[in-house]
Design the sequence.
């Protein structure tokens, strides 16, 4: 089976990033990789997200185009589906909460297949939903746990998350359940792209690259914690230096940490320009955030009559002399 060019380009891209970080750390460029690149990446991340959100927000939405996935509000004796076809702002908000926290539309999603015959059949796609949900939630929990590196004293809420996450008390250091689920879920998301022919056909570097990058971040994080321990006290000094804007590089943190941090920096810098922007975009999506009041209310397109136009008469008044100079015929002398 051939994996395809997109697969290899992305894999080699991420491998090159790992190599760059390795060589950088070995060449004693710790300040570049520990301070300058992370700061620059964070600035691009924040600036890029603001830029893209403002650009989306500036787009006019002259029509109500919510996706309707259930009975709309109608006669009192017809039962409305208030979540899948909301008619109020509150309903749209509830639908959004279900979408963002539980990926409801993905849960309801079906995939279509041509089976022998040929016969079109529909099947549920619950594995994708489960892996997607597991991936995003564990990612979030891991990020929340990482706040222990950036806050001093570490808030008790983070310690509670840590102790719940390592509830089974396996190994030293204690194994986090989220680490296992995260890596399994993201591996599933990659394998489905590789082994389902239709998906492999439509997959681009923009699909593989973030997956490899995230797998790289997870793998280096796990190696850092469980296998090749780094100087965590040194890491905390570095991260506290970053947040207090008085960066310094403690000695002997370990190359693996710099690789982890560099991959994270690349993810942050890449984020605003990638499909990962669905994180912000989902909130701005007019197919999700509008109530379906299409028939209940009169909607007037703001571009409708009367529209400010520039008539030919006005145009000629403005340019008559120039037109005459250039020998162009005019209607009024
Ligand atoms: C997209 C962001 C990030 C992801 C997905 C991520 C992922 C992970 C994972 C899965 C681990 C394994 C252990 C654990 O779950 O705590 C880990 C460990 C670690 N990460 Fe990250 N990480 C991210 C950002 C960062 C940043 C910004 C830093 C520091 C500047 C960092 C520093 C570390 C360190 C020091 C460890 C080892 C922790 C220990 O030994 O307990 N990570 N990371």
Sequence:
């Amino acid at each position: 089976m051939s994996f395809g060019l997109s697969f290899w380009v992305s894999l080699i891209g991420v491998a090159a990033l790992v190599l760059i970080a390795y060589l950088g750390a070995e060449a004693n460029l710790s300040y570049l990789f520990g301070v300058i690149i992370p700061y620059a990446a964070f600035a691009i991340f924040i600036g890029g997200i603001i830029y893209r959100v403002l650009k989306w927000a500036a787009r006019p939405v002259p029509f109500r185009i919510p996706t309707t996935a259930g009975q709309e509000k109608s006669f009192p004796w017809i039962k409305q589906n208030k979540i899948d076809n909301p008619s109020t702002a509150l309903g749209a908000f509830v639908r959004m909460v279900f979408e963002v926290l539980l990926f409801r539309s993905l849960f309801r999603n079906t995939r279509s297949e041509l089976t022998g015959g040929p016969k079109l059949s529909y099947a549920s796609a619950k594995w994708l939903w489960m892996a997607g949900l597991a991936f995003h939630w564990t990612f979030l929990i891991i990020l929340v746990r990482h706040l222990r590196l950036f806050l001093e004293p570490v808030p008790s809420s983070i310690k509670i998350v840590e102790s719940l996450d390592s509830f089974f008390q396996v190994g030293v250091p204690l194994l986090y359940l989220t680490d296992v689920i995260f890596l399994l879920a993201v591996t599933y998301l990659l394998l489905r792209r590789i082994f389902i022919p239709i998906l492999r056909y439509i997959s681009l570097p923009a699909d593989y690259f973030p997956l490899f990058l995230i797998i790289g971040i997870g793998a280096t994080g796990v190696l850092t914690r469980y296998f090749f321990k780094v100087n965590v006290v040194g890491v905390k000094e570095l991260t506290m230096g970053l947040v207090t804007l008085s960066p310094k590089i403690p000695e002997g943190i370990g190359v693996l940490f710099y690789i982890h941090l560099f991959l994270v920096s690349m993810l942050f810098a890449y984020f605003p320009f990638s499909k990962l922007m669905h994180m912000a975009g989902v909130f701005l999506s007019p197919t999700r955030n509008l109530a379906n009041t299409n028939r209940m209310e009169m909607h007037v397109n703001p571009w409708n009559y009367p529209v400010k136009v520039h008539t030919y008469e006005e145009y000629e008044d403005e340019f008559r002399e120039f037109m005459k100079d250039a020998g162009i015929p005019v209607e009024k002398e």
About this structure: The pocket of protoporphyrin IX containing FE is lined by residues 139, 142-143, 145-146, 149, 176, 179, 182, 217-218, 221-222, 224-225, 232, 235, 239, 257, 260-261, 264, 267 (CB under 6 Å). The radius of gyration is 27 Å. Strands lie at 110-115, 119-124.
